[in-house]
Amino acid sequence: MASAPRAPLYLGLDLSTQQLKAVVIDGELRVVHQSGVQFDAELHEFRTQGGVHIHADRLTVTSPVLMWVKALDLLLDKMKRAGLDFSRVRALSGSGQQHGSVFWRRGASETLKHLDPDQDLHQLLQDSFSVSDSPVWMDSSSTQQCEDLQAAAGGALRLAEITGSRAYERFTGNQIAKLHQTRAEEFQDTERISLVSSFAASLFLGGYAAIDYSDGSGMNLLDIRTRNWSEICLQATAPHLDQLLGAPLPSTSVLGPVSSYFVHRYGFSESCSVVAFTGDNPASLAGMRLQPGDVAVSLGTSDTVFLWLQQPRPALEGHVFCNPVEQQEYMALLCFKNGSLTRERVRNECAGASWELFSTALSDTPLGNHGNIGFYFETMEITPPVIGVHRFDSADCEVSSLSPQVEVRAVVEGQFLSRRLHAERLGYSIIPGTRVLATGGASSNKEILQVLSDVFNAPVYTIDLSDSTCLGSAYRALHGLVAESRASFFDVVKKAPEPRLVATPHPKAKEVYDKLLKRYALLEERVVQKSHS
Ligand SMILES: Nc1ncnc2c1ncn2[C@@H]1O[C@H](COP(=O)(O)OP(=O)(O)O)[C@@H](O)[C@H]1O
Ligand SMILES: O=C(CO)[C@@H](O)[C@H](O)COP(=O)(O)O
C-alpha cells in the first residue's frame, strides 16, 4: 500500500569510501526513494580512484573534503529533481566511513551558521577546511604515532582495555597526532575536528555536530566504558584535544533541527530533526537489525565482520565499539582492507572484467578448489597486518600463478577463510541457528554468497537492499525521535521485512572447510613470518 501523500518520511544517508547514498523510508518502513552519487564517475574533477588518493609513499590515503561536500550538493539536487518532497522528512540521520577525519578551519563555525541558500555548499565552504585532503580509513602512515600512544597508555592491551582497540594506523587519534607533529601550521589553524559521520551531520545542522559514542570508539581516544574521552589518550595525542573534538554523545541523540539553508534551498521543514550520525558499520548493524548470535559480513570497499556484544572483551586483534542502538551494549568488529577492490582486480584479470564470468568461474570450480589456497594482500592488510600476494598448491608449496578460474575461487575462498578464522579467534563459533547476514555491494552476487555459506557452514541471509548502512540510518532517524522516551530500537523497527535466506551450505562444506581452515591458519602464519623476516 502506498503511503498517504503527507505522511512523514525518514531520510538515511551514507558517506562511504566510493559514494554518497540516500534512502528514504515512510513510517511503515517501506523504502520510497533511493539515490546516490559515485565519486569517481560523477565528480571526476577530483580525480579519485575508488573515492581516494593513494599518495607516493603508498601508505598515506586521503579524500578531498570538498568532493564530499559537492557530492551532497549533487545528491540533494538529484533527489529534488526526482520529485522527493523534502517537507515531509520528519527526521534524518546518516553514517560515514569510519575513522576518517575532517579539520575545520578557524571561522568555519560562523560560515556554517550563515549559509546563503542561493549558493552551493561546496562554493560556500571552499575556505572552511584547514586540511583539504582528509585522511581516510585506508591510511596506514601513522605507525610511529601508534607506538607512542601504546607506550603512553601502558601497552597495547591496556590501550585496548580503555578504547576497545590496540593502536591502529587508521584510527583518528593517531591521524590527529601525525598532523599535529608534521603539519603544525594547519593544526594551529584548526577550530574543530570531526569524523566523516559528524562532519556530514554538521552540514545539515549548520553547526558542529557531536561525535557519537559508537563511531567515536574508532578513534583510540574514547573510553568505551565511561563513554568519555580518555584523558591519557587525549594528552598523548595533541594539545587541547577535548575542545577540538567537543563532548561525545549517545548515538541516538537528536542534535537539533536542520539548518535554515536546507529549509530554504530544498524545502525541508523547520522542525525536521537531525539525529546523530554514526559509522557505516554501526549503521549497518542497525539496518540489518542484527541480533545477539548473528554474524554480519559486509562486503563493501572494505570487508568487515561484526557481532553484537553484551560485554566488551577487548583483545589485541579486532575492535570493540559502543553499540549504536542499545546504549549499554557493544559490538565487535574485524576489518579487512583487501575486500571488493581486490575481487575487482582478479575479476578484471581473470574474468574479462565481468561479474557474470567471475560468478561462472565460482560455479564451475569445486568446493576447496583442489586444495589451492591464496592470500591476496595487495595493500597493507589490517587483519593480519601483512602485504603481498601468495598462492599455495595442495601440497602447501608456493606457486607463482593459478589458472584464471582457480584464481577466482582462490581469492573468494581465501578471503572468507580469513573472515572465519579471525571471527573464531574473536570468540565467535558457528552453532546451529547461526545466521550469517550479508550486506554491501558484493552481497548482490549469489555465487559469492554461496561460497560464504559453504566456508562458514551456515545459512546466509540478506535484506532486500544491499545497502544496509543507509537503511540503518533511516531506521535510526525514526528511532532517534522516540529514543529519549526509552522506546527500544527493535520495537520501532519491528515491522521491517525479515532477512531472506539466499544460500545454504553444501552437504560437503563442513568436511572440506574445517580441514582447509586449519591449513589456512598455518599458511597465514607462514605468510606473516615471511613478511616480517
Ligand atoms: N555483482 C557484483 N559482484 C561482486 N561485487 C560487486 C558486484 N556489484 C558491486 N560489487 C562490489 O561492490 C563494491 C561497492 O560496495 P559498496 O558497499 O557500495 O561500497 P562502499 O559503501 O564501501 O562505497 C564495488 O567496489 C564492487 O566491487
Ligand atoms: O575501517 C573500517 C572499519 O573499521 C571500514 O569498514 C570503513 O568504515 C570503510 O567502510 P566502507 O566504505 O568499506 O563501507
TrEMBL record:
The record, for SUPFAM superfamilies, names:
Actin-like ATPase domain
Q: Which domain of life is it from?
A: Eukaryota
EC number(s)?
A: 2.7.1.17
Pfam families named among the record's database cross-references: FGGY_C, FGGY_N
**TM annotation in the entry:** none
Q: Does the keyword Kinase apply?
A: yes
Which GO terms label this protein's molecular function in UniProt?
ATP binding; D-xylulokinase activity
Which UniProt keywords are listed?
ATP-binding, Carbohydrate metabolism, Kinase, Nucleotide-binding, Transferase, Xylose metabolism
Q: Which residues form the Carbohydrate kinase FGGY C-terminal domain?
A: 296-479
Say which family it is in. Belongs to the FGGY kinase family.
Name the record gives this protein: Xylulose kinase
